[in-house]
Amino acid sequence: MLAAAITPIAAQNFDCPQVERQVKLTAAQTTVTSVSLGQTVNYGVFVEPVNNTPDPTGTIQLVVDTTNLGTFNLKQSQTSFSTVFTIAGAHQLFVTYSGDFNYCAAAITFSLTVSRLGTSLSLASSTATSTPGAPVTFTTQIAPATPKGIPDPTGEVQFLDGATAIGSVTPVASKASLTVSNLSGGTHQITAVYSGDANWFLLRSAAVPVTVNRIASTTAFSARATTTDATLTATVTGNVAGAAAPGGSVQFMDTVANTPVATATLSAGSTAATLNATQIAAAAGHPIAAVYLGDANYVNSSSSALEIPVLINSASGVSSSFAAEEQVSLFGSTLASSTQLGPLPLPTSLGNVTVNVTDSTGVARPGGLILVSPSQLNFLMPAGLAAGAATVAVTAANVSVVPLQVTIVPIAPGIYSAGSNGKGLAAAQIVRVHADGTQTVETVSSAPINFGSDTLYLVLYGTGIRGRSAITNVTCTVGAATLPVAFAGAQTQYPGLDQVDVLLPPALAGSGQVNVTVTVDNQISNVVTIML
Fold first, then answer.
1. Residues of CATH 2.60.40.10 domain(s) within the chain?
2. Given 22, 81, 140, 439, which is the most exposed site by the fewest CB atoms within 10 A?
3. Inter-residue contact 62 to 81 (CB < 8 Å)
4. CATH of 217-307, one of 3.40.720, 1.10.510, 2.60.40, 2.40.128
């Protein structure tokens, strides 16, 4: 045990006029002025007479700070005692001699500094590698072990990820543990700091590295398309149960142009973007894939590609509705490995391509294939389709085509032209009836049509017309003149081809280039032109 001297603060003798009866109080050791908390400290106190006189008798009272340690009898002018300090800091020892028959009473004060404990703070992790969302436990141990009679460390242990606090714990029996499940991907340097208290020093641990491996992701891509827009949906999932849903963004990539057609932010692992008709047309024939860009917890991934088809009336161009037995064209990419024309009667499978139309009653019917090629399918809308919402589904060997949502109506008139997108010179004929009743047929060209003395019928070819109501509900506008039609119905030689016959009055002669439209049950066709 440590024998400690105490440094005198002040010494005095009580009122005693006889100088020869005064005493001197001293400590046995005079060099030790500080000790560590929890150490046993031994003291020896001497009562020395001023002159060569008998040994003092009586008692010594000892008080540390405000705690009375007791009264001790002198033996051969001295006494000893020991104590353990349980509170760090500056302390005072008050020594009072009672005096006896020969000696006056006396008192002296000594000081002592008691140092706080705490040499190290160790930190351990339950694992060196983890995945996002998985629990990781960090445990600290304060050293040295708490001496007997000394309170365990109080205060707080703060855990830090770099400079960022991730939690605080009050130590119990010198230990503190924190479990976290929100470490993001990457390497983290974890440290712990003990705040200290009255008896324990502030301590900081060494850094402990923990590597959180990012989770592999899977991106699924689906789409819903109409003739005017398309909704692209991406869902990103990971292979670790309990992990937070992937965040970040998804790009919907045109895989041919290698450019994004839309970008959307994930929410709960899912996101969607809408393309308008212009965007769809720009990406027509190009497969689209969803590309997840990854985040702090998840690795990037890509979906398989889907193709957003463009469906039009073969005669008039883009249309939002279609009629049964109408000729339509669908544009895409790698739809077929070669170009093939369908024989008559039209096949429902050609070049490993099929088209099925499911109408509003849930009945699916195959479409007759007129032409298949890598970038275009021409097919016939099936007969018997019920009006209302329908789905056009294409199965092709080389590409996944998004089912297209369309509307089926009784009529969707389109007139064929020599130009693209249903514009330009009419793909039509003139039937010339001579005075003797004979007829000749001429193809409409850019040259002016000469009336002469003959009766002229304009024969227009189109599709989506045969479902008309009464013939009186069909008219043809040529220039400023609205004319009745002699015939409007199916052209029996080619499936889906319709014909409209119009008598051209001689008054139109010399009109020059005029616009021509057909109105069927109040539905107006595209505009074509002829030269009169």
1. 2-115, 120-212
2. 439
3. yes
4. 2.60.40
CA distance 501 to 484: 9
Helix, strand, or coil (residue 432): strand
Give percent helix, percent strand, percent coil of the chain, each to the nearest 5. Answer: 5, 55, 45
CA distance 382 to 401: 19
Total residues belonging to the chain: 532
Cα–Cα dist 135/210, whole Å: 12
Q: How far apart are the first and last CA of the chain?
A: 128
d(C-alpha 8, C-alpha 12), whole Å? 11
Q: Mean pLDDT across the stretch 172-185?
A: 94
- CA distance linking residue 204 with residue 384, whole number of Å: 82
194: Cβ contacts below 8 Å, ≥ 6 apart? 118, 121, 140, 142, 153, 155, 156, 157, 171, 176, 200, 202, 203, 204
Q: What are phi and psi of 280, to 5 degrees?
A: -60, -45
Phi, psi values for residue 279, rounded to 5°:
-65, -40
Contact status, residue 65 vs residue 92, Cβ threshold 8 Å:
yes
367 and 359 Cβ atoms separated by less than 8 Å: no
Fold of domain 415-531: Immunoglobulin-like (2.60.40)
Question: Beta-strand (E) ranges in 29-84?
Answer: 34-36, 40-49, 59-64, 67-73, 78-84
pLDDT tens column, 465-507: 999 999 999 999 999 999 999 999 999 999 999 999 999 999 9
Rg (alpha carbons) of the chain, rounded to whole number: 51
What pLDDT sits at residue 30?
39
Question: How far apart are the C-alpha atoms of 178 and 180, rounded to whole Å?
Answer: 7
Cα(325)–Cα(385) distance, integer angstroms: 9
Q: What is the pLDDT of residues 253-311, one digit of tens each?
A: 999 889 999 999 999 999 999 998 888 878 877 889 999 999 989 999 999 999 888 89
Q: Which residues contact 437 (CB under 8 A, 6 or more apart)?
A: none
* Whole-angstrom distance, CA of residue 401 vs CA of residue 409: 24
Written as six digits, the tokens of 355 are 């088209």
Contact 381, 402 (CB under 8 A): no
Q: How far is Cα 205 from Cα 162, in angstroms, rounded to an integer?
A: 12
For the chain, give every residue range classified as CATH 2.70.50.70: 310-409
* CA–CA distance, 117 with 36 (Å, rounded to integer): 7
